[in-house]
């Protein structure tokens, strides 16, 4: 029994210590703008970087059905058609990860934007020819999120 307890303690400690590392895979920012303004800023920032918004998904209704109280939640999907077409033609395994997306939700009088870090895909797709694409997506996503955060 002692060995089992030691093993459980080691596993628990390992999971606890590794939890912050998983948060490093996110790009996140808070803005002092309320949700409607932040949503407009996000859409504008995405467009100004040459991307087309492909879909706006409302999440708050699904959360409400599960009795989760929420403010406004949206997932904004976006991409560059030619870029996605080119990348997925050569790497069809990337299809489930595209188009790119940013989640935006209200928290009181502020809004928070969150996205999966595009460079996290390098762990699953180590082909060196994809690195510049992931870096390009990273730079654009950071810039988009910064625009939303810094706008007033």
TrEMBL record:
UniProt cross-references to CDD domains, sorted A to Z: DUF302
Superkingdom of the source species: Bacteria
Signal peptide (residue range): 1-23
Annotated keywords: Signal
InterPro entries membership: DUF302, TT1751-like_sf
Protein name: DUF302 domain-containing protein
């Amino acid at each position: 029994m002692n060995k089992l307890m030691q093993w459980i303690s080691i596993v628990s400690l390992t999971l606890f210590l590794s939890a912050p590392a998983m948060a490093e895979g996110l790009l996140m920012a808070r803005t002092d703008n309320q949700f409607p303004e932040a949503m407009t800023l996000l859409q504008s920032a995405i467009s100004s970087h040459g991307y087309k918004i492909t879909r706006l998904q409302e999440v708050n209704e699904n959360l409400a059905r599960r009795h989760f109280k929420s403010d406004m939640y949206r997932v904004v999907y976006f991409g560059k058609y030619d870029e996605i077409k080119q990348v997925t033609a050569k790497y069809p395994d990337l299809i489930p990860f595209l188009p790119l997306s940013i989640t935006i939700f209200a928290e009181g009088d502020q809004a928070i934007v969150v996205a999966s870090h595009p460079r996290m895909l390098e762990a699953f797709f180590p082909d060196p020819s994809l690195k510049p694409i992931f870096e390009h997506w990273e730079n654009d996503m950071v810039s988009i999120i910064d625009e939303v955060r810094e706008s007033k």
